[in-house]
Amino acid sequence: MDLIVKYDPEADVLTIKIKEGALADEELLDNDIILGYNSDKNLVSIEVLDASKKGLLNALTELTKSKSNVARFLLSK
Q1: Tens digit of pLDDT for each residue in 22-43?
Q2: Structural domains counted in the chain
Q3: Helix (H, G, I), strand (E, B) or coil at 53
Q4: Which helix (H) or strand (E) holds 73?
Q5: pLDDT at residue number 49
Q6: Domain of 16?
Q7: Count helices and strands in the chain by DSSP H and E runs
Q8: Residue 77 domain flag
Q9: Of 23, 41, 42, 59, which sits most exposed with the smallest number of CB within 10 A?
Q10: Contact (Cβ atoms closer than 8 angstroms) between residue 35 and residue 23
């Protein structure tokens, strides 16, 4: 699966889907990041709330340029 990166400007939410699979559980971190896990407890998605306030729009542009490298890095962890 290719890395899927979506940004919702109305909600200001950046979503990064890194693996196939349905969400079975989510964890909200202190920095308004939501980690999504499948039933095997593997990370499948990352959501960043208030993404523009965190400077992530510029990072999103760079991420889309090198998404395959990022996917390999994230999946190697």
Answers
A1: 999 999 998 899 999 999 999 9
A2: 1
A3: helix
A4: helix 67-76
A5: 93
A6: 4-69
A7: 2, 5
A8: no
A9: 41
A10: no
CA distance linking residue 55 with residue 48, whole number of Å: 11
Cβ burial of 18 (10 Å; 0-12, 13-18, 19+) is buried
CA 36 to the chain's CA centroid: 9
Residue 15: both structure tokens together: 């979503």
* 67: its two tokens: 């998404």
Token pair listed for 74 = 């994230």
| pLDDT less than 70: residues of the chain | 1, 57-77
Q: What are phi and psi of 37, to 5 degrees?
A: -120, 150
Contacts of 53 (CB under 8 A, 6+ apart): 12
CA distance 63 to 34: 19
